[in-house]
Structure formats: structure tokens, C-alpha cells
Amino acid sequence: MWQFLKTWYHRLASPKWFYHTSGRWLPYLAAVTILLLVSGAIWGLGFAPEDARQGNSYRIIYIHVPVSVLALVGYYLMAVAGAIALIWKIKLADMVMVSAAPLGAVLTFLALLTGSIWGKPTWGTYWEWDARITSMLVLLFLYLGVLALSRAFTSRDTAYKACAILSLVGTVNIPIIYKSVDWWYTLHQPATIKLTGGSTIHPAMFKPLLVMIIGFYCFYALVLILNTRAEILRREQRSAWVRELI
Amino acid sequence: MSDLVFQFPNVNAFLAMNGHGVYVWSAYGISALVLLSVALAPVRRRRKLLAAMASRLKHETGNGTP
Known about the structure:
The structure holds two protein chains of two kinds.
Chain A: H1 2-12, H2 15-47, H3 61-88, H4 91-123, H5 131-152, H6 156-170, H7 173-183, H8 203-235, H9 240-245
Chain B: H1 11-16, H2 21-61
């Protein structure tokens, strides 16, 4: 059993194996992603009931919440990949880490943007230095920082260490973002979906949201894999197996 | 699924969303564009890399057609 786990682990850590295996699964993942996101968006836009207090503006939730969730989850993924790269010096983990940074930055940007658009009809302002919004802005800068660091060094050996350390230090921000709506009760509403205890969202509104959240998890996996494959090709272009691809 | 009914009387009401249309549709529209471009970027990057590698390989081995 242990031996099996060990060989499996080593195979998983091989860029060549990852490239070939992910290539086989990509079409299915892409199909599921498109299906979930398109049906979830139509459901949320046209078929979910109108909110009693916020009217139709609340429909932005079907993008805002999933991108925000993935922006936070993606940060942990990047930090864990960084830790694996630091501890075991696995090349693939480093490639995953630098592939997660631009994707996370885009998702954080979208979370801020959709939140800002939603804020205008609901709060009467596009921007407020509310605790949740400010801590999300810090998250965006952390992602951009990792991205900048990964390109700042000519030696990959220095770059991945700097990126991994910044990623790991930045994880402090994640629980702050998550808890900010409870600690500083200012403008942003508290969470409506809770893992523990009762959620305060109606099932008719929650079902399409769940479809969108699962759809965005698939989207995240899809783009992370695409980014990682491109990164593998770029770094392994001198190796024999990549030459055979052409 | 019997509770799944279209919430708007017509297409115009769907687009207007009771005055919130401009916010909702711009949020969805911009997000769709950004997500699509972030998904296509690595596809394009990979294609470019493969093309560059192919032309370099041809150059190195010198057996390519001009």
C-alpha cells in the first residue's frame, strides 16, 4: 500500500505524466464547466425569484459569491503548492503555484468589480473602505505580488522560494477576509450560506447559486490545468518528451 | 422543478430588470468577457510555444522545407 502511494505520488509529481493525463481529461472538464456555468447563469438571471428587499440587483450574487469563494480557496491552493515546492522541491508544485497567481488575481478583481457594481443600487456607492472590501483589495495585491516576484528573478531557484514565502505569509489575510463581516459590522452583509448552522437564503435562490459555485470550481480547475500545461511546455521545451510532441 | 418559472412577463422586462438591468447585465457581461479571455490565454500561449518550438527544431535539424 505504502509503496503504491509512493509511486503514485512520484508519478503525480512528474510534469510529463501530468501533461499527458490532464490532456485526456480536459475536454470533459471543459464540457461540464460550460454546461454548469451557462445553465446556472440562465437560472439565476431568469428563473430565481426576485429578492424582496434588493429587487433584481441581487442576481449579481450568482457571479459575485462564486468568484469570491474561488479567489479565497485559490489562495490556499497557491500557498499549499508553494509549501510543497519549498519542502520537497517538486518542480510541478512550483509550476502550479505560478499558474494559480494570475487566475486568482483575475477572480479577486472580478469579485471587487461585481461587488462594486452591486454596491451602487444597494448601498448607493461603488466603493467604500469597508473591512471586507479592503481585505479583498489586499488579497488582490498579494496575488499581484506573487505574480511580480515570479518574474522578478532570473534564477527560478530564487523565484519560487520568494513566491512560496510570500504566498504562505499572505494566508494570514484569508481568515481576516472571511471573518471581516462579523468582526467589523459595517456595510457588507454577513454570510448567507454557512457550513455550520442555518443558512439565511431561500432554497429557490440557493439552488442556482450552488450550480454556479460548482461550475466555478470546475472553471478554476480547468484554467489552472491549462495554465500549468502551458508553463510545463515553456520550462520543459528542451526535454526529449516535449520534442516528441511536435 | 415545478417551481421553475420565468420571472419576467416579456423580454423587455427581463432586460430592464425593474431599473437594475444596467447593473446586472454589465456585471454578467464584463465577467463573461474576462472569464473567457482568462481561459483562452493559456490555450493561445501553448499554441504559440508549440509553433516556436517546431520552427526552432526545423532550424536546428536543418531538414525542414523552406
